[in-house]
Amino acid sequence: MQEIIPGVFKIGKRIYTKSLIREQTGSGENIIKDGVEFRNWDPFHSKLASAIIKGLKPNLHESDVVLYLGAASGTTISHISDILTKGFVFGVEFADRVFRDLYLVAEKRPNLAIILEDANHPERYLRFLSSVDFLYQDIAQKNQVDIFIKNAEFFLKENGFSILCVKSRSIDVVKKPKKVFSHVRNELEEYFTIVDFKTLEPFQKDHAVFLVKR
Q1: What's the pTM value of the predicted model, to 2 decimals?
Q2: CA 90 to CA 12: how far, in whole Å?
Q3: pLDDT tens digits for range 148-191
Q4: Residue 25: pLDDT above 50?
Q5: Domains of the chain by range and CATH?
């Protein structure tokens, strides 16, 4: 098993994180036991996993404090929790229908706290956290870039890194994804340095991620 980036391991074409806690056997994911448990990180169910498989190096470290916007049911954030063995991750999610699943993930993980709130209004959860080392956003809304910039201004440390997951069809259903991604790049360059960019085919259609530095 090869560690390809801090906290992420590869066997063949699959990537894994080392389980922070012992997972329930009914979770449905592939687990390798080698003294400790390694959880398969499925690129078809996680945009960050697909980006890493395609060569992204996210500059995410074990002691980082992370703000995750759009945590959904908790798949990707649980793997980030695995990586942050000395850090902490705050997850923000607005949809009631998935928050229950997210809660079940968070209650087992000592380095994960979740907030039921709208990421359009970072001032509403300002009292729960201060500055963070890393910002991760996966929100499929038309104004997803504005949400990202606003939260970075509130919370991201100077020289901190961020990942924005872009779903092109959520921004403009008519324009070709390539044009949408180009427009997003231009918006981000007004506030950040673009470190890397990956489209996510064949794992995620019409999606891309930007790695940026403040």
Answers
A1: 0.94
A2: 32
A3: 999 999 999 999 999 999 999 899 988 999 999 999 999 999 99
A4: no
A5: 43-213 (3.40.50.150)
